[in-house]
Amino acid sequence: MAGVTATYDDLDDAQQIEALRPVALAAAADFGLEVARLEPVLHAYNTTFALDARDGRRFAVRVGTNSKSTVAHAIAQQSWIAAIAAETDVLVPTPLRTPGGRWCAEVPAPALGRSLLVTVAAWLEGPDADELDVPAAHALGRAMATLHRQAEHWRVPDGGALPVFDEPLFGDDDVLDAAPGLEAADRAVLDEARERASEVFRRLHDGARLRPLHADLHGGNLKWHEGRLAVFDFDDAGLGLPVVDLAVSTFSLRGEDPALEAALRAGYAEVADVPEVDEADFEAIVAARQLLLGNAMLAMSTAELRAQRAAYAQTTVRRLRRWLETGRFTRADA
């Protein structure tokens, strides 16, 4: 209609990306980078641009489109990545500071009506791992255990903070009741799944010593290049139990070749003892990942993901119902 200005949520993916390009360019200037080329490489939960600087260096510019991270979170995330790079053999993108020493830039985004956090890191070569094979799953297990050992002694720096992951939704607002197209029986499944998973989280975290976790270790946040695994995207990092990281990665492998999950655990065991919890409790933590993703999908602003909300709500109910009936979570279709 003439005279009506479309909101960001009304834009398609290409239009949203173009609305975010000025944000990435402004952040590049804050980081002291002279831009020769800026191209979008991912527009999903957050938006990443590949930046080629005039001096020949290449960076990933990450715009926190849907991110819940605060400045304090970004300080902790980037500081932890820098410590991992310095103290371990895990390949991570070297984070960049601004000339003034800041780990992130806060840039106004008029299209969204708010400011967005932007971080910059050195570019990692190679494609995203996406679907892991057995060697990559084994390497992921080793990398995860290495991160856990390093995190046991690392401390969040002054000015930084990380959220605590002591409940299934990791502190996100619970909007599952707003899921479209669900019947009463479907909502009962969500209620029972939340109740069961919440009880397990409360019991396991009660009095436990927590440590930093990546909390999103799946193929989309990994690169497998020339036989070496790289880990990136620490935007979801928080404080929790190591078994949560193991469950998150297990979630992404369920429904695939069982050898992948075995390789993940074998790789972990080469570096540290595999976290031990009751099998039913572990399955509840794996299933909690489905609750978290189903909930997060409902709050997305990205056009393509918004279009998938109703279908993914049905997927979430179907998978959780099967877990409640069988005691084992899987992403495979029945």
Automatic annotation (TrEMBL):
Every Aminoglycoside phosphotransferase domain range: 44-274
Keyword set includes Kinase: yes
Top-level lineage group: Bacteria
Keywords assigned: Kinase, Transferase
Molecular function GO labels: kinase activity
InterPro entries documented for this protein: Aminoglycoside_PTrfase, Kinase-like_dom_sf
Name of the protein in question: Ser/Thr protein kinase RdoA involved in Cpx stress response, MazF antagonist
Organism this protein belongs to: Agrococcus carbonis
